[in-house]
Each structure stands twice: as C-alpha cells, then as structure tokens.
Design goal:
The structure holds 2 protein chains of 2 kinds. Chain A has helices at 4-32, 50-57, 59-92, 98-106, 113-124, 129-136, 151-175, 179-187, 192-220, 224-230, 237-245, 251-278; strands spanning 36-37, 43-44. By secondary structure, chain A is mainly α. In chain A, helix 3 packs parallel to helix 7 (151-175) and helix 5 (113-124) packs parallel to helix 10. The model of chain A has no long low-confidence stretch (mean pLDDT 91). By secondary structure, chain B is an alpha+beta fold. In chain B, strand 17 and strand 18 (323-329) form a beta hairpin. Classes of the chains: A mainly alpha, B alpha+beta. The interface between A and B is medium-sized, with 20 and 27 residues.
Chain lengths: 282, 357
Amino acid sequence: MFSRAYKAAVTLPPLIWVTVFLLIPYLLMFCYSFWSVSASQTIVHSWTLANYSELLRVDVYWQTLLRSMWIAARVTIFSLVLGYPLAYFLSFYAGRKKDLLYQLVIIPLWVSYLVRAYAWKTILGGDGVLNTLLQYVHLTKHPLEFLLYSPFAVVLTLTHIYTPFAFLPIYAALEHIPRNLVEASHDLGATPGQTFWKVIFPLSIPGVVAGATFAFVLSLGDFLAPLLLGGPSGIMISNIVVSLFGAAYNWPLGAAISFCMLLLVVSLLFFSERLEKKWSFS
Amino acid sequence: MRDAGDSVGRATLLSIRNVAKRFGKNVVLRDISLDVAEGEFLTILGESGSGKTTLLRIIAGFETASAGEVWMGEERLDREPPYRRRVNTVFQHYALFPHLTVEQNVAYGLRVAKRPEAEIASRVEEALAKVKMSAHAKSKPSKISGGQQQRIALARALVNRPRLLLLDEPLSALDANLRRQMQVELKSLQREVGISFIFVTHDQEEAMVMSDRIALLRSGELEQVATPREIYGRPATAYAAQFIGHTNLLKAAVREGVVHCGPLMWPTALPDGPALFSLRPENVRLATGNPVAGAVRVAGRVRHQAFHGATELIRVECGDGLVLVVRTPGSRGALDNVELEFSPSDAVLVRESPKRI
C-alpha cells in the first residue's frame, strides 16, 4: 500500500527521537548505577554493585522511598475520594451543566504547577490566609505549625494537583457505561444504591485503576511540592535524587535510585494494565 | 378508546388512563387509554416515532407521564420508582450486565430482593432450562450469540415472576429466520407462564402472528385497538387498513343510497356525503361466467402482475383513474383485459386518517 521510503520517512523520526532522548539516556543511567565516584570527584568506570548495596544499607534512602510511597498512596486515596464522586455526579446527574462543569475541572490543569504550589504556601504559612483566619475567629492562639513544611502540606498540594488526573479516566469509564444497564438494574428491582455497587462501580473499575495509577505514579516522582512545602519531614525520594545529581555529585548513586524507581513504576503500570484488562468488557 | 378486559373476558391487569407525554414542545403521546388483561399478549404496533417505546417506558417507570395515570389493579403505578414495580422489561439490545455471567445475570433480580441462596439457585436453574440455556450458565454475555442473549434477557426478566412483562422490540436485532422461530417460541412461552406481555414492534407481521390484541399507535395517538383478525378484517381507519396488510382505498361519494367511486356503484344505507372504503386485494376476484348476485363488477386493463409464489398481485386500471389491486391464488399467466368482481360487504367503511404533525 505504502512505499518503503514512505514508511521509513514516517517511522524514522519518532524512532530516532525515542532512541536519542529515551533509550540512550536510560541505558546511560543504567551503566552509571554500576559505576562509582572517586575521592577526587571523578566517575570511575569500573563495574560494582556498591551503589545498590548502599541503598539497602543506609536507612535514609529506603525510609525516604517508603515515605514517598506512603505520601503517594495518601494522595491516590484522596484523589479517588474526591475525583470519583465528582465524576459520578457529572456523568449521571449534571444534565445540561455537564460540559460547563467538565471545563471547570479541566481549567486548573492550564494553570502553572508552580503557581498552584505557591498558592498553598500562601494559604498554609505561619502568617498565611488559613492561620490568620483561625486566629481571627479565636479558634487558635498561635499559628498552627504543622500546616506548612510538613508531609500534610505535600499531600494536600499533590492531591489538589492530581485530582483532575484521577477524575478524567473515571469520568471516561462512567460515560461509557450504557445507560440501559442502569435501567435494567432498576427494572429488576435494584435500588439506586444497589445499582451503584452492583453495576456502575464494577464497570467503572478500569477508570479507577487508571486514575489511581496516574495519581500514584505522578505524585511518587514529584519533587517540587516537597521542595516548596515539605520541609525536612516532607522530603521525598526525588529530592534525594536531585541533590545526588547536583550538590552531592554522586551520579552513580542517584542513577541507582532512579533505576529502582523506574522498575517500581514500570511494574506498577504492568499490573494496573492487567487489572484494567480484567475488568473491561467492551 | 376504552375497552374493558379483552375479547375473552379476562380481568383487567393494567390500566393506562389518559396518559400524555411531552418533551418540551414536542408532544409524543396524547390521551392514551388502554387496558391490558391478565394473561394477555398485547402488541403496541407503530412506526418509528409513533411513541410506542415512550409508552412502554412510562409503564416501566423510566419516563414519567406529563398527564394521566397508570394502574395495576388497585395500585397506582406511575408514582412508584421502576424498582418498586412488579413489571420487568426485555430491552431492545438486551442490556445484559457484561461483568456478570449468564447465571449471575438471571439471578440479579432475586439477589437484590435478598431471596435465600438455595431458592435463587433453583429458580435460576429452572429459568435457564425454560429458555434452553442451561449449558451456558457460566458464560459471559459477550461469549454467546445474539439469539442466546435474547433468551437470557427473557429468563432474567421471567425469573422474578412479574405480573407483566414488557418487551421493547426484542426481536429486531435477529436475522429473519431466527426471528420467526423466536416469535413462535415467545408466544408459546407466554401461554405457558400465563403472564401478560406488552410487546412493542414496528413489524405488522410480527404483531399479527403473536398478539391476542394489537394497539395501533400513530403519531402519539391510538388508531385502533383490536384482535389481529378484527384489525385486518374491519380496520377502523385508512391508516390501519394500509399499515396492516395491503389494501385498496376507495375514495367514494354517497348519493341517495348509492356509493359512487369512479366506474363502481353499489347500494348502501349510508347518508349522503363523502366516504372512504378499504377493500382487501384478496376480496377482489377475476370474474368468470355469470355475475354473482349482489356483486359489483367492473372491467379493466391489467397494468402489472407480480408473482409471489402462493399468490399473484395484479394491478388493474378500471377507468376514471381507479386502480384496483387484486390478489389471486397461484399464477394466472399473462392477462390483458379482465373483469373484476367483489362483494360490497367486503368494502369496509373507514375513517380518514388526517395528517398529524
């Protein structure tokens, strides 16, 4: 149908792009993770497993990784708890306001990430909007310290940022449920509550899995929110990677952490895809 | 148009009283009153856009009527949500739950009603056996054919022992052969379970084959409610006569006890004025020999012959712009000038069906 030259012309540019900007960097990163840094701050190109053993040996690395996963897990749960009802309401009850409300959910995505993160700084800070209000109505005497520079602030900000990412696939899944299935359920005597749990929710699971994966993976790798709002107790694994590649100048260790995270994320994506397939029936 | 019970005199199960439905300015149903008897197979027949599905959805509870009431015995139905009505529906595209097996689909109604598991198991088994689908109990709906999905949809509805089963063009997605087979099966199943069926279709042949009574719906109004024999033999309106089977519509005028229609004339007791008659093609004969007493005879020229196997349809021009279609048994070979004959009692007086918007 198409000539060889045409096929080559179409496939080559993306192939080159993926090779140069994805495959080669990953390969380099993989190599780096088995090299080391000498006392004179140069990269030693001899193979060693020292970086990986250091990850297991030094508490701060795996503890930070666990904390990051715990933060990401909380962000995922809150995003689902906020995103699912919103998607359900929009899909089933919004009627003519559907398109307008949908746009309102999408618009925040056009606002710069930094602006939204800074906004929370303004709200949560010691003399921020929230603390000022709380003191004004005499609920507290002193500013609440835990609001800013804490895991709480990171979870809150990331939830705010990633809820639309959880919302979108759930909304798409709900929109795909044939409405006559809902009618059939009511026809067979199921109350709206029974219909939700027995028909609507099971059929929306692929969307929930996709939304949860988005929220978890994106917040697990986040480094700006913890940098701006996390404080010492809110540090996440990406912040460590950033500092290892920067000030600490330990690229091999940074590469080893990155490679572990890559493995974690890829296996997560693999399982979530299996799960989505298992629950889709089209 | 009200009628109490049906021709056999069974008790009324469902009573639709002056139901109307508007979507904004669009009037879909106006002033529908209709009774359905216990154990009756009633077909709502109409073209697309006639409002037949809307009427069914009002009975099921998926739409609310803009006016009027629906009663089942002493119980007012139209204010209850669909899940509290003892009515079940077989949907046009079956609407089987894709994430549940055939068995779980059939058990759905009993599960949400929280029946004991032992009872559910035996009733589901019985229902699947009734529609000959026991072998597919563990399959997912996507793995079985359209005809099989149809049976499951039927079993899923009937297992709840509703007092009334609604069927929304359930056979329209099946191919012609399977469809004829399902018509027979559905009818015998209905007799066996003794539940009232309201069956919606646009297919007049299907309606004729299966129904105890047909309610002919046109642009949101009932045109005629009658048994298939009645509606075919004694159509009330020009629309009914044309929609069900073929007919010759004769635009005539009555003057001093005689009907005049082009070259045709016959005596009548009707008052003077315009009159419209329906004359079925099979009631017109090719005349031979002496005229039958009282029969109307007319000469004409054959314009077209269409052979249909058991019968042949012949178009005959009779002069004065009058064209009669005649159905004769078997094939007659090529015809040219013929004489036609029919009995005036076969010309049924029908009402005009004014155009509606």
